[in-house]
UniProtKB/TrEMBL annotation:
It comes from Iodobacter ciconiae. InterPro entries: AAA+_ATPase, AAA_lid_NorR, CheY-like_superfamily, Homeodomain-like_sf, P-loop_NTPase, Sig_transdc_resp-reg_receiver, Sigma_54_int, Sigma_54_int_dom_ATP-bd_1. GO terms for molecular function: ATP binding; DNA binding. Keywords: ATP-binding, DNA-binding, Nucleotide-binding, Phosphoprotein, Transcription, Transcription regulation. This is Response regulator. Residues 138-367 form the Sigma-54 factor interaction domain. One of its GO terms (biological process) is regulation of DNA-templated transcription. Residues 4-118 form the Response regulatory domain. Pfam families: AAA_lid_14, Response_reg, Sigma54_activat. SUPFAM superfamilies: CheY-like, Homeodomain-like, P-loop containing nucleoside triphosphate hydrolases.
């Protein structure tokens, strides 16, 4: 597979000449005669390199560079410029432009710069199947996903902490695993832990380990997940649910690169890369004091945002077919496929549960299919049924806990003391649960007027 270059110039002769040189060198070239046309092309399919003229009708090359840098920060840009704009081009390099070429330029200089830029943008391996193996968990033709994965690949080769944001079911752990596979730590352990699914009194021991006899039930020494991940990567999912007291200890681990197991007399060195994820708004948690600012900046060195399924609708038919192929093999069923109107319906449907919800629905459709074609009626029935809404255990627990808290607050008219007493919890712990679920007691207060 050859690298794709998006070439932008309003001079048709130069556009043709440069295209011929690049194609002769083995590159795939898409030509555009304006910045606006270039942005439209990128929205349809991501390129590996943008090569554009400075002087363009309408939006000029610099404005195009700024917009590309905002939308596609991992896409390298080479600018073609006249002598008069060289100072501006030099300034642009300080803001992220890869390079510039002064007109007239010779073919070798062009190909050298292009080659250098593509080394930055491409994985080191020339075996494309092997180079793409790190992102095998993603089925996509979406430009927004292409850009996200390009950024993920760039950050993977560093040891920077990454905060992955996204709604439940968008694939945050899948992205964390992909970053690990693309990193120098790929042959070392990848350990995932859901901070919201482990009881608060056990989370410290799970993460950092404990000594024998450190607490009731500690019948033997346990290393903890950080030490199990030594040399590799630890993924802290739902980091926004971590209690404040434990946030302090996690910050110390990140600063000092050592862990102190519960009941231990001294700390143990540990070498891990930390990836974290949340579906919650950490900025609001910072404001209300339930998440530490210093820990936030330690975890959020690089932030990657996974799009919801409705933001990448062009991927829905691909994902539906992919999941169907897996289910057919899993249940040893006769090969089946979606009717065209069924796929069209899936592509326009609302998906609050994102990819996980789509996967569950496809599985149900396949299991209940009585023939080789999954019809629109079958898909609509599955969408409406309760089985299509089955949630993972952690998500079901979260929803149950929130519903339970809401019922308590309604019952007590928003009185936190009474609600905490009914739940058999102290006020501090009960307030922490309310913050975890973004529940405001005042909203449940009832005004009784004579």
């Amino acid at each position: 597979m050859s690298n794709k270059i998006l070439l932008v110039d309003d001079d048709p002769d130069l556009l043709r000449l440069v295209s011929i040189r690049l194609i002769a060198a083995g590159y795939e070239v898409e030509a555009a005669n304006s910045a606006e046309a270039a942005l439209n092309a990128l929205a349809v399919q991501r390129a590996d390199l943008l090569l554009c003229d400075w002087k363009l009708p309408g939006m000029d090359g610099m404005a195009l560079f700024e917009e590309v840098r905002r939308r596609y920060p991992a896409l390298p840009v080479i600018m073609l410029t006249a002598h008069g704009t060289v100072p501006d081009a030099i300034e642009a390099i300080s803001h992220g432009m890869f390079a510039y070429l002064i007109k007239p330029f010779d073919g070798k200089a062009l190909l050298d710069k292009v080659s250098q830029a593509l080394v930055l943008a491409s994985p080191p391996s020339q075996d494309h199947a092997k180079a793409d193996a790190w992102r095998a968990g993603f089925v996509s033709s979406s430009p927004v996903m292409d850009e996200l994965l390009a950024e993920a690949r760039l950050v993977a080769i560093t040891d920077a902490s990454v905060l992955i944001r996204g709604e439940s079911g968008t694939g945050k752990e899948v992205l964390a695993q992909a970053i690990h596979r693309a990193s120098p730590r790929a042959k070392r352990p990848f350990i995932a832990v859901n901070c919201g699914a482990i009881p608060e009194n056990l989370l410290e021991s799970e993460l950092f380990g404990h000594e024998k006899g450190a607490f009731t039930g500690a019948s033997q020494k346990q290393n903890g997940l950080f030490l199990e991940a030594d040399g590799g990567t630890i993924f802290l999912d739902e980091i926004g649910d971590m209690p404040l007291q434990l946030q302090v200890k996690l910050l110390r681990v990140l600063q000092e690169r050592e862990v102190r197991p519960v009941g231990a007399g001294r700390a143990v060195p540990v070498n891990v890369r930390v990836l974290s994820a949340t579906h919650r708004d950490l900025q609001s948690l910072l404001l209300d004091g339930s998440f530490r600012e210093d820990l936030f900046y330690r975890l959020n060195v690089v932030s990657l945002a996974l799009p919801s399924l409705t933001e990448r609708r062009e991927d829905i038919p691909l994902l539906a077919r992919h999941f169907l192929e897996q289910v057919v093999v899993r249940y040893a069923k006769t090969n089946c496929h979606f009717a065209a109107d069924a796929l069209s319906f899936l592509s326009t449907a609302n998906w609050p549960g994102n990819i996980r919800q789509l996967s569950n629905l496809v599985e149900q459709c396949c299991v209940l299919a009585t023939g080789p074609i999954i019809t629109l009626a079958q898909v609509q029935k599955a969408m409406d049924s309760e089985s299509a809404a089955i949630l993972p255990l952690a998500e079901a627990k979260r929803l149950f806990e929130r519903d339970y808290l809401e019922r308590l607050l309604r019952l007590t008219g928003g009185n936190v003391s009474d609600a905490a007493r009914l739940a058999d919890r102290n006020r501090t712990e009960f307030y922490r649960l309310l913050q975890k679920h973004d529940l405001a007691p005042a909203a449940f207060k009832t005004d009784i007027t004579p």
